[in-house]
User: Fold these one by one.
Assistant:
Number 1:
Amino acid sequence: MTETTAVGPEPHGSPAPDRQPLSRRLVIAAAIEHVDSDGVASLTMRGLGKRLGVEAMSLYRYVNGREDLLEGVVDGLMDQLDADPGDRLQPEDGWQAYLQWVAHEVRAMALAHPAAFPLVATRHPAAPWLRPPLRSLRLVEQFLDALVRRGFSDEQAAQAYRSFTTFLLGHLLQETATHRRADSVLDEPLDEGDASVPNRDGDTTTADFPTLRRLRPLLSQDHDTEEFERALEGLLDRMDRTVSQ
């Protein structure tokens, strides 16, 4: 029995591309690519099989269905994160430098996959007491151990985990939502069927909202990076006061 292979679309007259044996890792990677380009809602076993050049039934050897596929997407995103900086930071560099490093690692992952990042917040974590976006046992172990090695008590490390994850999740969900809206183009109005009250958002103007109209250029400016840095600094300052007590 030969192993199922994934092939891409083959243009007429071109040589066959190299064939890659299907694996769970390859299927999950393709699912992440699909979500990045087309969104979570469009991810189906049939569509993913088409992307990989195989029948949908071939995928069930590696994933148990769409729910397992979504779990795999989250696991794949978590695999891109590492809360252990290794030789890049040492305990003597201080916990502030460590949290800065982790925050930017998580933000880079979220901005690389803005359509997939909400899954990190909504899928069930490995344990009920874990919090997104640091939601895997491996990541939380690395995070807590790093803080304890930098002088935190167990209670302080647990509180830091709660505060830090709350900050990251709130900011990055907002920021990735902004990116998704900026990247999406609504070609035609939504079909609302027989709804008695049609959607008239397309007819809405700011003519009756003078303050909003005046401030729209300011509201439209992108200050995400600046706001992230400022909020992160504020969080670290508050944590410093707590840890120093």
Number 2:
Amino acid sequence: MKLLDTNHARNTFLAGLFAVIPLAVTGYLIYLVEANTAEITRQVFGRYVPLVGAIIVLMLVYLLGMIVRSVFGKWILRTIDRIITRIPVLKELYNAWKQISFTPGGGEGIYAKVVLIPAGGAQRTKLLGFTSGVVCAPGSTMLPVFVPNVPNPILGRIYFVDQADVVETPLSTDEAFKILLSSANYVPYEITQQMPAVR
């Protein structure tokens, strides 16, 4: 019972930590931009205008998202990728990070592909998961699939599934996370169309 409580406390703490890190980083960025734009707003408007920094941060993040999703942005990311993988010390660290990183819209890491796998022995019941699409070892047909918990997708289980039983979906990683975070209150058209075809 004590071990169970310890695991629960650790998992809950880690879930809270993963939730607070992006919020803390975003808040700090807004604070920095707000502090640096305070004088500019005084000069332009004659007085301090609050939340200008927050608006600038949101616009910059949106602009960055547009660039990353564009053809030019993807070319830049591929170029940076090639450069980093040629640097001796950084190469190993970068490759290790790519294996575990969450890259929405990208093709690296465990979140590269959204798939459906059988739930235990039941072929008609499927679990939603993520996979890199890379087999466990040369000559193997087993794929590692991460099946997240709901509504906390940070935690989950790793299954090793034969490629023949893995059904790749047309969903993006972002869409899959919407399903998980909404506890399936949001289910996109693509998944509902594919489910009847799954055998």
Number 3:
Amino acid sequence: MKIGFIGLGAMGSGIAANILNAGHEVVAWNRSSGAVKALGEKGVKAANEPEDVLAGDALFSMLASDAAMRDVGLDGALLDRAPRGLVHVNMATVSVAFARELDRAHKKRGLGYVAAPVFGRPDVAAAGRLTVIAAGDALLVDRVRPILEKIGARFVVVGDKPEQANLLKIAGNFMIASAIETMGEAVALARKGGIEPSVFVDVMTNGLFASPMYQTYGSIIAERKFEPAGFKLTLGLKDAGLTLAAARELEVALPLASVVHDHFVEAKAKGLGVKDWSSLASLAAARAGLKE
């Protein structure tokens, strides 16, 4: 298949490379040219303008936010230039309300729309080990399933409404952010009492909390290595806001989500925005009177 791709950030680059490695032709556009050039050495074709990626069998996009998608025109202006029948697979974590808006915008123009956000950090994306969560019309999902199955170790269809995939991703990121907050506080407690953080994390993440998520973030928090950022804290703040927006719409009380959101705001105000979102844990250390 000929695949158009928009958004070659830390996640998008790995995904696009794996689509190429699966034997598909990939034409990509990115706001900055460096990422396109790097993938061009692997065989990805560079597009001069966003509309140049619309001529294929499907369009994939991985952008940072609702606003980033609007800036490119994926909510309207760019879609007006797409041929009828094109399927757009949006892998970004966007708000539930915007997901509905995108679905309507595509249907209005005779275009297919599938939401397929993913769980995993950039190294996981590069290794093709993502968890891919898809939702949309069953026929459209089946049409792009062979590609989505190649970029992840697990592929799950959660419903026929695209926003269901985004809601699951938002809820999942809330769980991860809450775990980071909890680990940060627990490590601060253990560390203040003279326990080596790496020992505490090893005991907990190789026992009761033996999972890749706890092991990855537990290690980062114990070693206090928040750079380079696999997932920037500013994006964690954005997703925390999406959690609260979804909770308001669905009338679900999430008191912990409010606390986590406020801590992300505090962390960003203290200059941690470009660090990994696990740097949220440094606030707990500071409140305990611990120094870096």
Number 4:
Amino acid sequence: MGAAGVARLRERLQRFRAVPPVRAFIAELQEAEERERRGEPVHLGDMLLRLMRVAIQRNTLLEEQIVVEREEHVAELERLREDVVRLAREHAAPGRRARAARAVEERFARTPLPRRVRRITVSASAGSDGLDAGLRPQSWPDEQKRTLIARGRRLADQELRRHGIDVSARAS
């Protein structure tokens, strides 16, 4: 409806302001207009949508931060393993160095420590083909959906190629 529609509705209801529920409704409409003047969402639904978007964006950033930290920890564990193997080779008695290094490697291999997993992130927006929940049209044409899916696949393929992964055999 927007603030203009709220204002029109409030003006039309003014002649019924003597009725207490209508008067209360007019007050709610005036508050909605005030919110719009302050740059806030006019409707509760708009506010909830904005809050959900903020929550999703914040959670996404936190998840990305956790992944980065985990990768750093896994890399440090890998460096620790290499150092311990090197120390075993250097400080074991001659003739036992290979066996000591192998024992350390085997012990690390049995440990349920997190392992390094290659992470590839495709960052993008839906662009003009996206369907904004706040501006939902009556229908969302199949062609527009297909365009959005194709764009996502194209961006994913570009990122995979950038990491040296062959995407030519990928099923369409």
